[in-house]
Design goal:
By secondary structure, the protein is an alpha/beta fold. It contains twelve helices and 13 strands. The protein binds nicotinamide-adenine-dinucleotide.
Length: 427
């Protein structure tokens, strides 16, 4: 016999079924093995991978297109939606991304940049859209190298297409001085304010609708005008002069609130509305005409602090970190609003000037000037609604917050990188 015929010869021992397999086939043992595998697969799919079988009806592999019921918390919903690169693959338990993609319009401004800091610290991916009208790149410079951060120069009066989960809409020239610069610019600024508030808000609501994002509008206590009710509750409709010098801002924000609610009711967009009362802190524009920044800058420069009117008009002053906490709670919570976000502690302008004197220079002088048109006499938020529904209340008193702002202003006015005076400072 040749070696070839030897190789082709059938070896009965090589093809015999091993005893272990014969054992499995006997007496329906195979059936039990299959049932066992089935139960194990079911447990791993339903119990371990899905957070709850009631949250969505489709498998996690298709999670990017899942339509979740309204009660799924936004952050959890995003966790289910997140990690698009892994779509189709199971994500090991405990490794799911907790990041949200958040757009902050006006994010290089005073409030926006502090909000961005908090969102970045939370681990979110943040896109800032800003035209730098009043904002500064320096306010967000420390995030520029972070791959989770993007800064886009863009005017919100033009549409923009981005993919995000939440939109904080802050973009808006917020201080009176920017629309009182001079008569010609006043008209332009009026127009710009209206455009930003109306067209800008429309564009951002349109974006929220297209990408199914939650939208938060930063409205203002100015919607109450010169209020006839004190303190102001959210149910108060306000006392606004529709043709006055401040009405571009007041009425612009009122229209923005209306648009936001119409998109919510008519198009089912998830929206939130915050009515922000006077806020102060580091990174405020120098010389922007807001009373706290004016007093602090003037006292540091040894100039008299300007009080318009008799100084008995009242305002409440909220430290910026308190506001940011309130905005984030509002965005993450279940309530549309509007919510007053402000510090109910009420100060006259004279009392505020005294606190600034105590903090910076006891010999700082005060100069009285005629009051500006439509200046509200009183402003104080009723924050019971935010307290009850968002569990929020301000925690930083003026005496604690002011020194933090003063050291920032001192650095910017006298520091190595001295900031030039604002182009609006001559008002
Ligand atoms: N700070 C307060 O006391 C206060 C009070 C009430 C309401 N608000 C509201 O909070 C928001 C933020 O206010 P802030 O104090 O940080 O003001 P800010 O001026 O510091 O910030 C506004 C930002 O929006 C940007 N911006 C303006 N118009 C824009 C446009 N058309 N397109 C893109 N970007 C634009 C500016 O460059 C700036 O960065 C505003 O909507 C304001 O109305 C603030």
């Amino acid at each position: 016999m040749t070696p070839e015929t030897n190789q082709n010869e059938i070896n009965p021992r090589r093809f015999s079924i091993p005893d272990s397999i014969k054992y499995v086939f006997r007496e329906q043992r195979l059936l039990f093995v299959l049932v066992g595998i089935g139960i194990a697969a079911l447990i791993s799919n339903v119990v371990l991978i899905r957070p709850s079988s009631t949250w969505h009806s489709q498998p996690i592999a298709n999670s990017f297109h899942i339509v979740e019921p309204a009660f799924v918390p936004r952050r959890i919903a995003f966790e289910l939606h997140s990690d698009h690169a892994n779509a189709g693959r199971r994500i090991p338990l405990g490794l799911k991304s907790k990041r949200l993609r958040v757009l902050v319009t006006g994010g290089s401004g005073f409030v926006g940049s502090h909000l961005v800091d908090r969102l970045m610290a939370r681990g979110d991916s943040v896109i800032v859209v800003d035209n730098f009208f009043t904002g500064r790149k320096e306010n967000v410079l420390h995030h520029l190298r972070n791959p989770r951060f993007e800064l886009i120069r863009h005017d919100v009066v033009e549409p923009v297409m981005l993919e995000v989960d939440q939109i904080y809409h802050l973009a808006c020239p917020a201080s009176p001085v920017h629309y009182k610069y001079n008569p010609v610019k006043t008209i332009i600024s009026f127009f710009k304010d209206h455009k930003t508030n109306v067209v800008g808000t429309l564009n951002m609501l349109g974006l929220a609708k297209r990408i199914n994002a939650r939208f938060l509008l930063t409205s203002t206590s100015e919607v109450y005008g010169d209020p006839l009710e004190h303190p102001q509750v959210e149910t108060y409709w306000g006392n606004v002069n529709p043709i006055g010098v401040r009405s571009c801002y007041d009425e612009g924000k009122r229209v923005a609130e209306t648009l936001t609610m119409d998109y919510h009711r008519g198009l089912n967009i998830e929206v939130r509305i915050a009515r922000i009362f006077n806020t102060y802190g580091p990174r405020m524009c120098l010389d922007d005409g807001r009373v706290v920044s004016n007093f602090v800058a003037q006292a540091l420069r040894k100039e008299p602090m300007t009080i318009y009117g008799d100084g008995k008009q009242t305002r409440s002053f909220q430290y910026v970190s308190d506001l940011v906490e309130g905005l984030m709670r509002l965005m993450e919570g279940d309530h549309v609003g509007p919510f007053n976000l402000g510090n109910p502690g009420e100060f006259t302008m004279l009392e505020l000037a005294k606190v600034v004197q105590d903090t910076i220079d006891p010999s700082a002088k005060i100069e009285f000037r005629p009051n500006t048109e439509d200046d509200p006499h009183q402003r104080k938020p009723d924050i019971s609604k935010a307290n009850e529904l968002l569990g929020w209340q301000p925690v930083v008193p003026l005496q604690e917050g002011l020194p933090m702002m003063v050291s920032d202003f001192r650095q910017r006015i006298f520091g190595e990188h001295k900031e030039s005076r604002s182009k609006f400072s001559s008002v």
